[in-house]
Amino acid sequence: MLFIMLSQNKIEDAKARAVLFYDKAGLVLTSKEKQFIEIADFGLSDLEKMGLEVLVYVNTERVCAKELVMFPWQTCPEHIHPSKNKIAGKEETFRCRWGKVYLYVSGDPNSERQLDGLDDHRKYLQVVHEVELNPGEQYTIFPDTLHWFRAGDGGAVVSEFSTRSTDEEDIFTDPRINRFTIIGK
Amino acid sequence: MLFIMLSQNKIEDAKARAVLFYDKAGLVLTSKEKQFIEIADFGLSDLEKMGLEVLVYVNTERVCAKELVMFPWQTCPEHIHPSKNKIAGKEETFRCRWGKVYLYVSGDPNSERQLDGLDDHRKYLQVVHEVELNPGEQYTIFPDTLHWFRAGDGGAVVSEFSTRSTDEEDIFTDPRINRFTIIGK
After folding, report:
1. Is the dihedral of CA B56, A30, B134, B106 positive or negative?
2. C-alpha dihedral sign at B104, B106, B112, B115
3. What digits encode the pLDDT tens for the residues A111-121?
4. Partner-chain residue, chosen from A26, A140, A161, that has the shortest CB–CB distance to B161
C-alpha cells in the first residue's frame, strides 16, 4: 500500500474552502463541526482531482448521514461497499443540494465526459453509465454495486443518507488507492 | 379511534405554505417532490397546533431520510418507536436546518415553555425535558424512547435521518391520536 502524505497546511486550506461551499449551499454548520470536516485524498496526494471533503453528521450502528463537498471536477474514485459474512454492505442515497454531480453506475456508456482528466484512474474504471444529479435530485446505491462520482465545473454539495459508514471495508478498483489520508507535517 | 377529516383545500394550503419554508431554509425540492409533501394532523383536525409537513426523500428497508416543516409552535405529539419481536424500533436523528425546534425527552423539567398552548394534549405528556435545537444542531432518539417536539415562534425546518420509517408502529401517549390523516372533500 502506498502512503503519500498530505500536508497539514493543505488540509486546513481544503477545510476552509469546503466551508465556503457549505455556505453557498445554505447549509448551517456549528463552529465545532467546521473543525471536524474530513479531507480524504485516497492516498493519491492529488486532492484537487481525486478527493472528498466530508462532514459526518451522525454514524451509529444503524444510520449514517454526511454532507459531502466536492471541488470542481473533483472525483471520488470507483468503489463498492461489499456484503460480508451474510451482513449486507452499506446502502447510500446521494442527494445533490448544490452544484452538479455526475454519478457513474453500471449500464451502457452514455457520455463522453466521464473519462476526461482522470489520468491514470481511467484505466481501472469498470462502470461508466452517467447519472446527472442537479439540486433536489438523488440516487440510491445498494450494496455490492460499483460506483464513482465527480462534481461538475462549479463543484457540488451532496447529502449522503446511509446505513452505518464503514470506510475501511470499501473496495476500490484502482489498486493505488488507500482510503485513509496520511497527514504529513 | 376517532377519524376527523382534514379538507383537501386545507391540505393544499398547507403544502403550499410548507414549500415557502423549504425555500427559506434554502433546500431545493423538485416540482414532483413539492406535490408529494405529506400533511399529517394526527387525526385531531387542528393542523396549526398539532401536525407536521413531511417530505420523504427515501425510505428503503434500512434507511430513511425526511425533511420536516413545522409551522410556528406546531407540535408533533408525544410518541415512541417501539422495538418488537426482537427487532429494534426506529432510530432517528433530528437536525435543525432553519428556525428553532424544541425537542422533549425524559429528564428533569427544565423550561416553563413546553406546556403552553398544548390544550388537552398537555395532560398526556410524560417527558418534559427540553432540548433546544438551532440551525446546525441535532439530537439522536434511540428506539423505545418517548419524545415529542415543537417549533419555535418562526417555525422550523428539520432534517430527519433514520432507520426505516414505519409510522404505523408508532405509539402515541395521547389516546385521541391517529397517525393517519383522513382526507375529506
Report:
1. positive
2. positive
3. 877 788 888 88
4. A161
